[in-house]
Design a protein that fits this description.
The complex is a heterodimer of chains A (114) and B (113). Helices cover 0% and strands 60% of the residues of chain A. Chain A has 114 residues and is mostly beta strands. In chain A, the strands form 2 sheets. In chain A, strands 2, 4, 5, 9, 10 and 11 form a 6-stranded mixed beta sheet that branches. In chain A, strands 1-3-8-7-6 form a 5-stranded antiparallel beta sheet, with no helix packed on it. In chain A, a hairpin with a 4-residue loop joins strand 7 and strand 8. Chain A is globular, with a radius of gyration of 14 Å. With 113 residues, chain B is mostly beta strands. Helices cover 0% and strands 51% of the residues of chain B. Chain B has no helices and 11 strands. Chain B is globular and about 35 Å long. The chains are: A mainly beta (114), B mainly beta (113). Chains A and B meet through strand 4, strand 5, strand 9 and strand 10 of A and strand 5 of B.
């Protein structure tokens, strides 16, 4: 089945710096890609989703890059601020089968130092 | 905005105890899920359902049962709880699978002593 590896597990940056979180996946049929954000003590909420081929999505100070050739998904923060401190999870879903389960990465805890 | 409500928010039980976690969603989503969240593992799917009376096995189902009684209600049952089941449990719902967004509940923190 699908396996998703997310790195790094912890990331600490200063306010205004950039940050990159990367996920690699194994199933070449993977088609739907998500980033979820979990603020401290809270539940997960969708941050961004990307579909299909190599694509760049931007929003809320984030850029998502998808490289299907390398089976790599990344979340790039261009200028981190303290409100970005949270855990971030990538999630991947394939198109095969009638029920396309999401497989989550292990998560990255981002700390933004003022 | 989809609403997913979990109860209880915190639960402590002893080894061998019987625990039921409840989840209700109010947006008529077809799919409901139970995940556990553990450090270093992210979220792992325990069971899911695509409608009342339906149950699908997830990736880590051992030691768990689940039941979808209505479109709105999905329960997770631990009949003989073990310390390895100490975790943060999330319920989620979605319209469908694939590219559909999951809406998560606030979570239930379970401790098995």
């Amino acid at each position: 089945g699908e396996q998703v590896e997310q790195r790094p597990p912890h990331l600490s940056v200063r306010e205004g710096d950039s940050a990159v979180i990367t996920c690699t996946y194994t199933d070449p049929n993977s088609y739907y890609f998500f980033w979820y954000k979990q603020e401290p003590g809270a539940s997960l909420q969708l941050l961004m989703k990307v579909f299909s081929s190599t694509e760049i999505n931007e929003g809320q100070g984030f850029t998502v890059l998808l490289n299907k050739k390398d089976k790599r998904l990344s979340l790039n923060l261009t200028a981190a601020h303290p409100g970005d401190s949270a855990a971030y999870f990538c999630a991947v879903s394939a198109t095969t089968g009638g029920n396309n389960k999401l497989t989550f990465g292990q998560g990255t805890v981002l700390s933004v130092i003022p | 905005e989809a609403a997913v409500t979990q109860s209880p928010r915190n639960k402590v039980t002893v080894t061998g105890g019987n625990v039921t976690l409840s989840c209700r969603q109010t947006n008529s989503h077809n799919y409901m899920y139970w995940y556990r969240q553990d450090t270093g593992h992210g979220l792992r799917l325990i069971h899911y359902s695509y409608g009342a009376g339906n149950l699908q096995i997830g990736d880590v189902p051992d030691g768990y049962k689940a039941t979808r009684t209505t479109q709105e209600d999905f329960f997770l049952l631990l009949e003989l709880a073990s310390p390895s089941q100490t975790s943060l449990y999330f319920c989620a719902s979605s319209v469908g699978t694939g590219g559909n967004t999951l809406y998560f509940g606030a979570g239930t923190r379970l401790s098995v002593l």
